[in-house]
Design goal:
231 residues, mainly alpha, two-stranded antiparallel sheet, 4 strands
């Protein structure tokens, strides 16, 4: 069975974000093909995609390597997100479907419930799904793709502190959904802008110090089967 290149791309990207492939390290087609249990063809295609996304660079005499983004590039990512997330909410208020609203409301209910219980791990995942669904509700594949790439890169470059008041954060999520459901594009934009600005203050660069290395998973892990990778 031929493994699709986008599945291999997702697996490599996830490992870069998790720190399995460290910044500046070489990414050889042979070793990657062995690790993910695929041929070199989908690996080659995946590396081209990841280079276009900014996760990989090609260096003379070294080939493909994990990129080494600067602190300024990290700051630019947060600024871009502050511009694009409100735009996505604006479009969602104009184009959302009932299916989108159903999912968003369900995520808010779960988030508020988990916030009361203080389960921070669940909250992080639910928050990611919420913003992914909100982007999809914009009805713009290009915008959704940009926001998805931003989220991946920000997760790679930043540690995010848990909000001091998770219930307040999820109340903001609920207010965004209410505005989107009413078709109130301006209110959806304003609440999302405030929410994004507040969450941005909780981001700390991973690469500003060496602390992220202590928790990194090393590349000596066993081969990964990409057939079950989410994509």
């Amino acid at each position: 069975m031929r493994i699709p290149a986008h599945s291999v791309c997702t697996a490599i990207r996830d490992d870069i974000v998790a720190g399995v492939h460290e910044r500046g390290s070489r990414l050889t087609e042979e070793l990657l093909a062995r690790r993910y249990g695929v041929s070199r063809v989908p690996v080659r295609e995946a590396l081209r995609t990841l280079e276009a996304e900014g996760f990989v660079v090609t260096r003379r005499h070294a080939g493909a390597c994990v990129a080494e983004p600067t602190e300024q590039e990290g700051a630019d990512l947060l600024e871009m997100r502050m511009l694009l997330e409100p735009l996505g909410a604006t479009r969602a208020a104009q184009r959302r479907t009932e299916a989108h609203l159903k999912v968003l409301r369900g995520l808010v209910r779960l988030g508020q419930e988990r916030a009361r219980r203080g389960n921070s791990d669940d909250l992080r995942s639910l928050g990611g799904w919420f913003h992914e669904t909100l982007a999809q509700a914009s009805g713009s594949p290009a915008l959704t793709s940009l926001l998805t790439q931003l989220r991946h890169k920000i997760a790679w470059m930043y540690v995010v502190d848990a909000p001091a008041n998770p219930a307040e954060s999820w109340a903001e999520h609920g207010a965004i959904v209410d505005a989107v459901a009413r078709g109130d594009a301006e209110r959806a934009r304003a609440i999302t802008a405030l929410h994004t600005e507040r969450s941005g203050a909780a981001h700390r660069l991973r690469f500003a110090s060496g602390q992220d290395r202590a928790d990194r998973v090393r590349t000596s892990q066993p081969p990964v089967n990409v057939t079950g990778v989410r994509h």
